[in-house]
Amino acid sequence: MHESEAVILRCWPVNEADLVVSFFTREFGKVKGVAKSGLKSRKRFGGALEPMTQARAWFAVKPRQELVRLDQLELERSPLAGQVDYARTAVLSFYAEVLDEALPEHDPQETVFRLLAAVLDATTVEQPWLPVTYFGLWMTRLMGWLPELGVCTACGEALKAGEASFHPGSDGLFCSLHRQGAGMVLDGDSWAVAQRMLRAPVTAFQGEQWPRKRAQALRRFTWQALERHLERRLRTVDAMRQLGA
Ligand SMILES: [Zn+2]
Predict the structure, then answer these.
(1) How many angstroms separate the alpha carbon of residue 127 from the centre of ligand 1?
(2) Which of 1, 62, 164, 191 lies at a C-alpha separation of 20 to 30 Å from 210?
(3) CATH class held by domain 86-242
(4) Ligand 1 centroid to 174 CA: how many Å?
(5) Mean pLDDT of successive 10-residue segments in the chain (245 residues)?
């Protein structure tokens, strides 16, 4: 039997009363398991199945089986404990979708786990756009999908603030000479924010104003990179675009 800190990513019903739960553990990485009678047993799973719930998980790995047996979850912190609105919910759903899609199973990702814990702490109704920007940038980086930000991908020349552009079809940033047709410009603030975020914890930015439009181009840049490498559209990105983020 294993015991680990965990964050719930997603769950869906199987059979009559059972659930399959995808959860991200600190020690074992992403795991999928069957919670027997998960729909009914409030004693063993009570209140801990909402995506982005932080919980302690007890589970058993069965030989030659893809799914573990999830025996119990003990709620540590529910995303519903704080104030809830549409933007915060969309941001929390984005974390869950990206992690569920991007993480390999049974592969410990301690750095990603710490990133998630930090952004969950920082994600409030008052300030959803800072942590989601930070998470998108760092997930892209930690998955190995973040290109060099300082130079043009086509010619290698150093980029100047406000001139770098990007495009949904290709990795990297481009100088004004190599800008592609429908490309979007990474504005000077987005570019500067990206450089700072790669060197500082999310808490370093919490004293700043983070209106919805701030670093929008940086978010779009990382969302495009994530979708390109995952080879699919992210549902939660559409939800955030509809909010104008
Ligand atoms: Zn160039």
Answers:
(1) 36
(2) 164
(3) mainly alpha
(4) 5
(5) 97 92 97 91 86 97 91 94 93 98 96 98 97 98 95 94 90 92 90 96 97 97 97 96 94
